[in-house]
Amino acid sequence: MSFDLGLAGRRALVTGGTKGVGAAVVATLRDNGAHVLTTARTVPETPEGGVLYVAADITTAQGCATVAQAALDRLGGVDILVNVVGGSTAPGGGFAALDDDIWMRELNLNLMAAVRLDRALLPGMIARGGGVIIHVTSIQHELPLPESTTAYAAAKAALSTYSKSLSKEVTPKGVRVVRVSPGWVETEAAVALAERLARDAGTDYEGGKAIIMKALGGIPLGRPNKPQEVADLITFLASSRAAAISGTEHVIDGGTVPTA
């Protein structure tokens, strides 16, 4: 049995591809032979070899239009669209700390970037009779932290519901739509958070990680995900090996979500 993923020559657009999970997805798709274009607010000074970049702010409609046009101009269209970009800049303090501007910022980053890019690039996939769209959601839409992630979690819940509905519409037309729902991932930002918590608590980095895991209710695996682990799952789902998978959400969280 061959485990060739069949990604050689496939055209992929990955959002948020310069850090964390996005960077790991970009590298893994490239290493499996895909032609990859990725987004960044600014192009890195030392870009990855064999990767195309487009500078744009995809929290805006114009930024998404710029990216979609770059995908058409530089790749001739896309076979794989991986919507990784996301995150939160919302302050702590619960619901009362979230004004309309914060809510719209969270929605534009975590929901509307994917909606706008899908809307621009899906017609080409449908016309060709094939393609894959992957939305990176989060276990936060099942386990929100009310002190700090209400808006982010709500936006990711909306992304998950949108993704499911889209899958029902376009899977019969040959385009698979799949969700990946990570738990805590040890990205650059997560490392910085753990280090800050460790300093505040007078402990080391492992102690800082333990603080975060406790706040999440524990991670049975005993550690956060690594970006490469999430990227490996996404790459498999984007491949022909997953040709019968559509409309589903795949949780990768080390057992954090306590229900089946």
TrEMBL record:
<protein>
    <submittedName>
        <fullName>NAD(P)-dependent dehydrogenase (Short-subunit alcohol dehydrogenase family)</fullName>
    </submittedName>
</protein>
<dbReference type="InterPro" id="IPR050259">
    <property type="entry name" value="SDR"/>
</dbReference>
<dbReference type="GO" id="GO:0032787">
    <property type="term" value="P:monocarboxylic acid metabolic process"/>
</dbReference>
<comment type="similarity">
    <text>Belongs to the short-chain dehydrogenases/reductases (SDR) family.</text>
</comment>
<dbReference type="InterPro" id="IPR036291">
    <property type="entry name" value="NAD(P)-bd_dom_sf"/>
</dbReference>
<dbReference type="Pfam" id="PF13561">
    <property type="entry name" value="adh_short_C2"/>
</dbReference>
<dbReference type="InterPro" id="IPR002347">
    <property type="entry name" value="SDR_fam"/>
</dbReference>
<dbReference type="InterPro" id="IPR020904">
    <property type="entry name" value="Sc_DH/Rdtase_CS"/>
</dbReference>
